[in-house]
Amino acid sequence: MATYDDPRILRAVAHPTRNRILSELSAAGSLRAADIARLLDVPANQASFHLRQLAKYGLVEEAPDEARDRRDRVWRLADEEGISFRTRDMLDRPGGRAAYAVFQRSAVAWGHHLVDRALAPGGERSKSVSEHAVRLTAEESHELMLEINAVVEDWRRRTRGADDDGRTTYSVYQLIQPMPETDEGADEEGEA
């Protein structure tokens, strides 16, 4: 997995369309700009622009071996295992705190969107919402995270590059953290 501490790269990833492109490429393995445009319901030139921006930072690259001809541009993640950030190192760099604030706002908005969609009644596709409370040491929580990530990565490997056959990209959203404190000023109804 590629690890970065450059605030400019974090800002590039914070853009919702670019983040979604990275997710689609992670799930599919490789896609054309036209495929991405269709999946994200954006114009093809917009998908191409965002792909070029991600390529500028080394996050995606062309996959010429998968192209039909020299004019056909197929894209893939530069590192198929994905990307991560060394947040502590990045925060100390010029522009690091501002870039992190932009990323955090984007991540919070996306998290709210996912939870709202998951809890909405009905729905066109299967979905699952779970919350589990588990008593762990810090080391055990890290081990649990690694085990869950391994299961998800196994599924990604099995389905990456497979025929569509009714497949769509699913989001697997995971939080592993100590139970947050409750707002002591609110009663059970959520009123102060």
UniProtKB/TrEMBL annotation:
It holds the Pfam family HTH_20. It comes from the Bacteria. Residues 8-90 form the HTH arsR-type domain. This is Helix-turn-helix transcriptional regulator.
